Amino acid sequence: MFIPITNYIPLLSEETMNLHIQKLYKGYLDRLKNLTTDDPLKAVLNISDYPINKRGQILYNAGGVLNHELYFEELNQHGSHEPKKKLKATIEKKYGTFENFKQEFIRISNQLVGSGYTFLVLRNNDLDIVNMSNQETPYSYDMVPIMNIDLWEHAYYLDYKTDKGKYIEAFFKLLDFDVIENRYEQATQN
After folding, report:
1. b vs e for 38-66, b when ≥16 Cβ sit within 10 Å of the residue's Cβ?
2. Domain residue spans in the chain?
3. What top-level class would CATH report for the domain 13-74?
4. pLDDT tens digits, residue range 143-159?
5. What gap in Å lies between CA 86 and CA 74, rounded to an integer?
6. pTM to 2 decimals?
């Protein structure tokens, strides 16, 4: 996965992104390849096909790959920072305004205890904001992730130290809603 580092600077440093991509994400990918030849999503969706003693490690590493790919793909400081189409209408219907949605996403993100992610998901044809611990993925719970924020300390500590809230605020300046809108369009076509 090639990710231009300039997409994140100055809100996330090159050091943070190199560590995140080259060491952590690559580690999940390598460990998953040692456990299965299936792609990460297929591994999660078909977890019952695997021996019970491998399932925990498969789910953890597949989640690490899926969650990070979702996160990296949606970050681009040069992208569109608000939804414009169908997703915008759905957000406004549920939350009133994009700003209300953003504040709710920030509020829920700040409630996550420990390591994990906050996701905007599609569940039963409705948007929802959910926290998940460690490398859990919404796919395991019949939800489709539309966007996420990585709230493991490695995602922000070098740049924001213990100020997770400042990182969460900056996150919205990095989101590319063209990418997120495309995910939503694909999820609602099925």
Report:
1. bebeebbeebeebeeeeeeebbbbbbbbb
2. 13-74, 86-189
3. mainly alpha
4. 999 999 999 999 999 99
5. 17
6. 0.94
